[in-house]
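protien #1 (seq + structre)
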Amino acid sequence: MTSSRLEQIQSAIRDQHLDGWLFYDHHHRDPLAYRILGLDENSFVSRRWFYFIPANGEPRRLVHRIESGKLNVLPGSKRAYSSWQELESELAAMTEGATKIAMQYSPRNAIMYVSMVDAGTVELLRSFGKDIVSSADLVSIFEAVLTEAQIESHFVAQRKLDEVLRAGWQLISDSTKDGGHTDEFSVVEFLQRGITAAGLFTDHGPNCSAGPNSADSHYEPTRDSSRRIQSGDFVLIDIWAKLASAGSSTHPEPDAVWYDITTTAVVGREPTDREQQIFSTVRDARDAAIKTIQSAYEKNQPIAGWQADDAARNIIRGAGFAEFFTHRTGHNIAVSLHGNGAHLDNLETHDERLLLPNTCFSVEPGIYFPGEFGVRNEINMITRPGKAVVTGPMQNELFRL
C-alpha cells in the first residue's frame, strides 16, 4: 500500500469521525480487505491477522508467529502472537486509545455485502469497550469510486455492447420472418460471438428469454431447455460485458468497468394492451429513479440507494403491481458487475449507503407475471460532481421486430 493510499484512507476515516478502521482476515473470508489494502488475494493464509489504521498516526499489524511476514508489504509497526490469550492481549493493545472503530460489519446484517467479520470477533472487540460500526461507506469510497480511465472504459464497453445487442435483435427479426424461427440459446451464442469479436469479456450469459421465461428475472437458457422464438412471441434480452485484455477474450482488462442493460420486444405483431401497460409502468418507474438521482445531484444533496429504489417502486406500487416487482431497482457497477458501492434497494435491504460521485450503477425496475411474461428496463448511470448521467440509449417503447 502506497503512502498516498494510506493518506486517502486516513482522511476518509477522519471525515466519518471515526478513530480507526480495523481489518481482519482468516482463510480469505474478507476479500474486501485484500483489495483495499493491496494484498495478494491468492496468498496462503492459515492464521488470523489484524491490521489497524488509526485516524492519525502509524498503522499497526498483528500476525501469527508462523506467518510473521504476512503483512510485511503494509506500513506500520508489527506485533506477533502464538496463543489465543496473547492474540486477545495484543489486539486490545493495538486498538488502545481508539473507541469508535469501523470493521467489515453491518448491524442486523442489513448490508450483507460488507458483513465479512464474524460475530465472535465483534463481541471480542466490544468486550474491550470498542464501539464497532460498519465500514460500508468507507468500502464504497475505495471499491466503488471510479477513476477517469475506468469511467472511459465503461463508455467504450457501452458503445461496443450496444452494437452487439442491436445485431442480436436484428438476428431475431430476420430469423422469424415468413414463418421462420430461432431459439433462445442460439441467440445467446450469437451474442457471445459478438461480444468476443468486439473485444469484450463476459463472465457468463447473456440471457435471452422468450414468452413465460421472461417472467424469470434470472432465467438462463441451455441448449436442452431452449425455447423457440417465433412470430407472436415476447422476448427479453439481458446482456453485460466489459473490455477484454488485449489479445484475450477469456480475461478482462483488470480495472475495466462493466456495462449492463436489458431491453424487450414483441415479434411480428403489435404489443397487447397489457404488455404496453406493463412496459409503460416499468419505463416510468425507471425514469422516476433517474429523475430523483439527477435532481439530488443538481442540488448537491446526498442521496442514498434506498431513496432511488423508493422513487421507482412507488410508481409500480401506485399502478397496482407492487407484488410483481420482486427485486431491487439497481446495483452498483464497478470492476465487479455487482460492485461494493450503494445498490438502489429498499426491498431486499435498506441500503443507506450514499450514491457517491464518480460511481456507476444500474437502474432496472421490472414487473414479472409467472407463466405469462415479464418486463425489465435496464440502463446504467454514472454520477459526476453536480450531475448524474445515463450512459447509453434508453428504451422508451417496446421494440417491434
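ok now protien #2
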Amino acid sequence: MRNRRNAAGVDLSASVATVRLPTAVMTAAGTAGHGAELGAYFDLSAIGAVVVKSLSADPWPGNPSPRVCPVPGGMLNAVGLQGPGVAAWLIDELPALEASGARVVVSIWGRRVEDYERAASLLAAAPACVVAVEVNVSCPNLEDRSRMFAHSPEATGAAVAASVACGRPRWAKLSPNTSDLLAVAGAALDAGAEALTLTNTLLGLAIDTERRAPVLGAGGGGLSGDALHSVALRAVFDCRAAFPDAGIVGVGGVSDGQGAVRMLLAGADAVQVGTATLADPRAVLRVQTELAHWCARHGVRAARELVGAANDKWKRGQP
C-alpha cells in the first residue's frame, strides 16, 4: 500500500500489527453508521478505515428511547447495539462501502461466546476490503450473570478465540470499567488478538431534575467524548508499556489533531474519531488534516515517529 501524503507533506501511514493503513485516523464503531453514510461528506478512501457500528450474528432491536443525552464534556448513549445482523449487513451495507474504496473494520459483539463465533463465521467470505474485525467485548455475558466480557480475562479470551473464524486480524475492544485492564488485555492478546482498541465508554448516568428520573430509557449509558480522553490515554499508555509489541488503536475524546497526537505519543499506532463525528460528519477528515499540520510544524516527517514517544521518555525517567 502506498504511503498517503498530504498538502503538509507528512507521511500519515500506519501499521496496526499486520494491518497496513494509508493514514492513522479512522472512524470509531457506533458513530459512523453501518455503511457508507459519511460518504456524503468526504471520500471514505481518504481515511485509514471505516469502523462500522457493532454487529451481532442476529438482528438486534437495541434499547428503548431516549437513547442519547448530551452531558458536560461529552455524551451518554444507550443505543444498545441496535443492528441488522451480519448477514443482512453483508448484503445491504457492505457493497456501498466496497464501492467507495474504503478499508473496512467490522465490529462484532455477542451475549454468549458462541454468538461471537457465529458472527465471525459469517464474515469469513467477506470481500478483501474488510481488513480487520474488532471484537467488542464490552457487552454483558449472559453466561456470567451479565457481567461484561471485558471485565474478565477468561471471558475476554474465550470471545476473542471464538472469533478466529473470521479469518482476519482481530482487534479486541476493551472497557475502561475494570481494575484488571492489563490482565484482560493480556488475555485478549494470548487468545489471538493482534491489537487492542482502547477504550470503550465509561458507565454514566444523567438525571432529569424535573421528572426526578433517569434521562435515558435504559437508565444509565456509556460516557464518550472529551470527558473520556484522559481515561483512554491512560489505558493506551499503560498497555503500551505492558505490551510493547502489540498493535494499539486509541479511541476516546479524539476531537482534534492535538488529541490524535496525544494518543500516538501515549503509544497508539492509530486513532479512531467517534463522538466528534456526531456533531461534525467531517470530523475524522479534519482531525487527520490537523494531525498532518501539527507534524509539519514540529518537523515530524511521518506520524509513526510519534508512536510511544511519551512512554519511552517516561521509561527513561526524562521530564
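Residues 14-315 form a domain with the TIM Barrel fold (CATH 3.20.20.70).
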